[in-house]
Amino acid sequence: MADPEVLPEPDNAPPRIELEQTDIYSRYLLYSRSEILAVLRTLIQKAALITVHFDHGKSFLLTTMLALTDSDTGFILDVGASREMNQRAALADKLILTAVVDKVKVQFSADGLTPIEYEGRPAFQGKLPDAVLRLQRREFFRLSTPIATPVIMSAIIQSPEGSPLSVDIPLFDISGGGVGLMTDPEIAASFERGDPLADCRIQLPDEGLLVANMIVRNKFDVTTRSGGQFVRVGCEFTDTPQSRLNMVQRYITRIERERKARLSGLGKM
């Protein structure tokens, strides 16, 4: 049963491809060959489920990594369950592979996958990536904020006409790296990628007032499963003291704990 206090994830939200947001996540990239091989070996040993996105994020298949090639210059993937998706993946010129293992998110790209036979069964082979993104849970986990007790961000932004505009905008989600704002198209028109947002004020229930600088990273139209429509504006925290980010982590941890307790209670009914 879905949590009645949580806004459902939008049907048309694009997959999270942090690897393409190097301005935010560059410090989490691994370039050392030995480190990259160690990460891939962990995926193999743990039989981690890997999501392979292609066609600009519109298509995907689920797989696992079977082995590294003999010379450690590439990797071998199992094929997916859908023959059609396997054929489309084989034709894709760029694919993004994402897995979560031991609460660490791993993501890297492949410039094509070659169909091969491995130990008598169909498989894919790809070249060893030049870089691998490695994120701890607190760096990528995104909490949808409760509808019953919405979290509001207050800020002064610049309208499309150039005049100051005071806004109070509910948060769609929050993470250790930033927030997603839920607003209408008229207000969203005032946000452009790269815009700085100074002294944003967010009242975190039972934690206190968080004052932070942010920068707009993206925005896209969202349609929820119930048919509601809004614009999600993604913003990243910048130059925010660790003490304030700790407030965010405490809030996320508490809300997650409360939701798990509530769901556990429902399961016993």
Describe, in plain words, how this protein is organized in 3D:
It is found in: Bacterial flagellum basal body. This is Flagellar brake protein YcgR. Residues 28-134 form the Type III secretion system flagellar brake protein YcgR PilZN domain. GO terms for molecular function: cyclic-di-GMP binding. The chain has 269 residues and is α+β, with helices and mostly antiparallel strands. The protein folds into 2 domains: 18-139, Pnp Oxidase, Chain A; 141-267, Thrombin, subunit H (Beta Barrel). The chain is 22% helix and 43% strand. The chain has helices spanning 22-25, 33-45, 83-91, 137-140, 185-188, 242-267, and strands at 29-30, 50-54, 59-63, 65-68, 74-78, 95-101, 104-110, 114-118, 121-127, 132-136, 142-144, 152-158, 164-175, 178-183, 196-204, 208-223, 229-238. The protein has a 6-stranded antiparallel sheet with strand order 1-10-7-6-2-3. A 6-stranded antiparallel β-barrel has the order 12-13-14-17-16-15. The longest helix has 26 residues, at 242-267. Residues 1-13 have low confidence and may be disordered.
Shape by Cα distribution: elongated
Mean pLDDT: 85
The number of distinct helices, counting runs of at least 4 residues, comes to: 6
Helix content: 10-25%
What key attributes describe this structure?
Pnp Oxidase, Chain A, disordered N terminus, 22% helix, Thrombin, subunit H, single chain, six-stranded antiparallel β-barrel, 269 residues, 6 helices
